[in-house]
Structure formats: C-alpha cells, structure tokens
Amino acid sequence: MATLFLICGLPGAGKTTLAKQLELTQPALRLSPDEWIAPLVTDHTDMAELDRLRTPMESVQWTVAKRVLTLGVDVVLEWGFWSQAERAYYRTEAEALGARVKLYYLAVDRDELWARLAKRNANLPPGTFLVTEEQLDLWSSWFEPPTADELAGKRID
After folding, report:
1. What angle do CA 89, 91, 92 make, to 5 degrees?
2. Average pLDDT over residues 111-139
3. How many domains does the chain have?
4. How many other β-carbons are positioned within 10 Å of the β-carbon of residue 11?
5. Tens-digit pLDDT profile for residues 37-64
6. Does residue 156 fall inside a structural domain?
7. Which residue range forms the structural domain that includes residue 51?
8. Do residues 19 and 32 touch, judged by C-beta distance below 8 A?
C-alpha cells in the first residue's frame, strides 16, 4: 500500500528539506509546485503570474500523484496545505485510492520563519521565489494549523 505524505507549513518552515529526506528514505516521488513553476516564468517577481500558475500546477501534480499512488509508489506533496479543508480533501481522495496518508506539520514561529526567509531571499536556491515579510504576515493570517486529530491521522470531515 502506497503512502501519501502531506507536508504542511508556511514558507521557511523546512518543507522542502523534509520532503527531500522523505523522497530518499521512503523512496517516494516528491512533487513541489514551485520547482515546476520556476522554469515556466521569466519574471520570478511577478506575483500575479506565480499565483495564476499555482492551482493548475497543483492540479497536474495531483493527477500524477494519483496515478503513482495506484501503482504502489509513495508520493510526497510539499504544497503547504494551509487549510483544514484542503488537508481533508487530499486525505479522503488518497484513501479512496487505497493509499495511507501521513501528515507532517512543521510548526515554526513567525520570527524564525522570517529569519530563514530573509537568509534564503539573499541567495535564492533554484525552484524558489522571494517571499517578503508582508507576504509572510498575510499568509500566516490565512494558515490553519492542523488539529491533534489531523496529526493522529483521524478523518476530519
């Protein structure tokens, strides 16, 4: 039975680091929208274009992930999963395919997130984008941390 790993956290929390570890140790197919979007855009500061591409890119990656899970291969989605509804949707979808689901939540306080992002912004690795402090604060206001039940793998409907 394949496992779907959902990596939950804000930018700078360490999602990519954890996802890359899981990719090697499981082994698993790791899917990151930023890494797929980066080669498609010429202006990496065009937030409207980056935002426009995110949903279709995640849709394509989910199509790939579902096929891979049905083949019995583990998948790591490092999408952030900021809402409880989003996490519940992908858990339900994966379980309907016969896959297990494991949610990893990287809880990092706001000041540490900004310190990490400021350092990353100074020398952006490939497949990443600049994140401003204002964006971090806005996105933090949208973020719904997972509940204890979610982290325990219980269904949240």
Report:
1. 65
2. 94
3. 1
4. 21
5. 989 988 877 878 888 999 999 999 999 9
6. no
7. 3-151
8. yes
